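[step 3/7] fold_predict: job queued, chain A
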Amino acid sequence: MGLRVEEAMPDMDAFELYDDMREEDMMECIGLMHHPKDAVNISFETSSKCYSLRGNDGLYCSFGVTPHENVGVVWLLGTRRLATAKKYFLKHSKQWVDEMMIGFDFLTNVVMKTNTLSYRWLQWLGAEFSDCQYDGYMSFILERK
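[step 4/7] structure written:
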């Protein structure tokens, strides 16, 4: 597989990500009234830090953080290929969350309640959840431990 995390190349990664996006991520975007293509482009454009997980066979996911004063709005969008990299992804997740956290008091965003894989991963990372203004979604906060 030759997996590696590297600084994102928005022009290339945005196209590849949208072209093979996980259904769960598409549904989250649509549920928040964003076309998935727009959500991908906005995520790359507004991020102060943005990375992609790549393998020799292509893109697995992209992730980043958008600053809002002392709070980082963290995001991750995956391709269907991401499911084949579970071990690598989990092994390195906490390290990259720590990297995203630099410069922010905490990280936050929302997750669709039916996106059980993302919800369980965020729980494993130590996220705290609460109700939010979007029907069918939960807010989450990741803080330094």
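[step 5/7] annotate
The domain at 4-78+86-143 is CATH 3.40.630.30 (Aminopeptidase).
The chain has one domain: 4-78+86-143.
exit 0
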